[in-house]
Amino acid sequence: xxxxxxxxxxxxxxxxxxxxxxxxxxxxxxxxxxxxxxxxxxxxxxxxxxxxxxxxxxxxxxxxxxxxxxxxxxxxxxxxxxxxxxxxxxxxxxxxxxxxxxxxxxxxxxxxxxxxxxxxxxxxxxxxxxxxxxxxxxxxxxxxxxxxxxxxxxxxxxxxxxxxxxxxxxxxxxxxxxxxxxxxxxxxxxxxxxxxxxxxxxxxxxxxxxxxxxxxxxxxxxxxxxxxxxxxxxxxxxxxxxxxx
Length: 245
Fold this sequence. Notes:
By secondary structure, the chain is an alpha+beta fold. Helices cover 25% and strands 22% of the residues. It has seven helices and ten strands. The protein has helices at residues 2-11, 77-81, 87-96, 111-114, 127-140, 175-185, 198-205; strands at 33-40, 43-49, 69-76, 100-107, 119-125, 155-156, 160-165, 210-213, 233-234, 243-244. The strands form two sheets. The protein has an eight-stranded antiparallel beta sheet. The longest helix has 14 residues, at 127-140.
């Protein structure tokens, strides 16, 4: 327990990661696509309009036929799928993670309405940058010969699902680094160095995008209002407040 207490300041950084090419240039001005960066306390993820997603680049998007947006995040296999906070799994994730997963949630409303008290940044990008971002997500799924990855039994099918993923989770290659690399693939300069906390990632992204949330009535957050999930992210929306790491 003493060791766990000593590690807590570092473990606050936990979330998700994977490797990818360094960004070549900032997004072009001729932007036609929008991606939302979402900060949920320790964790961060991305939300993308489902109708913009090519089935060939993200076959699993078909698992959410009624969703308006898909939110995706990456994390440690055991810690991310735990239904309740578990200190041991958090320590294990940071020091000797053995596998990783992607979590995909279907959002039926605009992102700012779904997460009014989370940090949400709207980022625009051109089609080539957008397709590279989708390619990054595509390559994070642990794909076999068929190319289609099927969800695990955990999660809530009506809200979100977990999928086997590639990449090794550590304290310094966590979910926020994974998200930063995705944005780097889309041309945003996030790699000097990659931010390992959700707060630093959100702060950096505000230089390039538009703040959509938090909205009025929320308490303090990283940008001025704190979201409802200070430790993690809710699996779904306001109706499902279980925390995710």
